[in-house]
# Entry
Amino acid sequence: MTDRTQFIIDYVRRNGFATPAELAELVSVSPATVRRNLEKLHADGVLCKVHGGVIYQRPAEPKSVNIRSAQSVDEKRRIARYIAKNMIVPGDKIMLDAGSTTTYIAEELQSVRDITVITHCIEILNLLRDSNGGALVGVGGEYDARLQAFVGPLAEEAYGDLRADKAFVGANALDLRVGCYDNTGTEKHIKGLINRNARHSYVVVDSSKFRDDSGLFLSLEIADITHVITTLSQDSELLQETAPDHIEFVFVP
# Structure
């Protein structure tokens, strides 16, 4: 793979979309040359041609939270149990992102006392509404039935005013060179706010998320990720080759 091709792939992945003219100017070649590069990348399944340009991958039908919850269940439950047992202390204020793994975390927190949970996820609110373990703060906004969560400007404004000790953020996929990917753009700003407004923020991903290419929108850039909790093996070749030095990994056995 040439340096030009790799630059094109990385640029489109970071930005989500690019036009041939834009790419031609960036790499200092003719639009015709760039189009030939894009035809090859499209044929290889790396980029997908759409009206006016290219995106990183072929769009797929977004998976609902219910479908994702049924995948890699054992690993997600192991992550949730590890967090509840080893990372939560009385008095903690915790932000939980919407998603399957974070919902399993909420299940484990039902019996944990003296904590505050902040979330925009309906399923998590339902799980913790009768819990005697502490306070529950629901973030409202426009309801997204697929995410089973509140999103939009009202939710973003609320998160902008909130702070927490710890946050747990999910993702559809994690590329250690680029960042977290999700299926909808509506999640991007909320995930960014949750990530920034906690003293310690953790991306929670089972081992399949490092191979999953179902995410379409970049929701967290790799530079903004400081901690990852995962069931991926510490000896994984993927980690040896691509793990950034600034990220601290927590490996769940």
